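A sample copied in:

***
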Amino acid sequence: MSKVGISATIILAIGSLFVAGCATKGYVRKSVEPVDQKVDQVDQASQKRDASQAADLTKTNQVIDEDEKKLDATSEIARTADSTSKGAMSKADQNAKDVSGLRTNLQDVVANIDDYKPVNQDVVHFKVNQNKLTKDEKAKLDEVATQAAALPRYFITVAGYTDQTGDVAYNDQLSRERANQVISYLVGTHDIPVYRIHMIGLGEQKLIDEGKGRKAREESRRAEITIYSAKPLSASSTTGN
């Protein structure tokens, strides 16, 4: 074979290899590109999924925080309600004891009621349409309290009155207010037990001299305070038969 032929053969071989190499690279590129695209798509989907999961986790944590706050608030309300309930129960128990003691004292007052006799009566007077006690009237009540405190067994009645002028219903209310003023002073100032005092308002009933004249009307605007007392109970009467 001549040198020219050999050279041509070599060139042809090299060209074939070059063409084959190019063809192989093109094939590889075409095969790899779809894979790369798929990988990118999977990566993007994974990133979106991770972001969504992170957002859901944040929202869940917020909900949990809110629930914990609500639970804490509910627990505090429950503790407050429990404390209030216990306080109310304690107050109710104390009230029951007070009522029981008051009932016992009332029973002591009215026991053998026929044994009680009036030992003193005082009268305080009021101005027209008023229920306020003057300094002089309070001084009279001071004497009433002193006398009652010296008695072993006693109770006090307070009857309020008005004159005949004015509306009957108004006079009834005013008479009760006058009696209440007397009771408030005896209880508040002298610690007379309230269960030892009995009150009634009689309005314009039992007028002084039937209310004739200014002086009679002044005398009718009054409250009568009567002390009833009985001898101390003997040992046999307190133990029963």
Observations:
- Residues 236-241 have pLDDT under 50 and may be disordered.
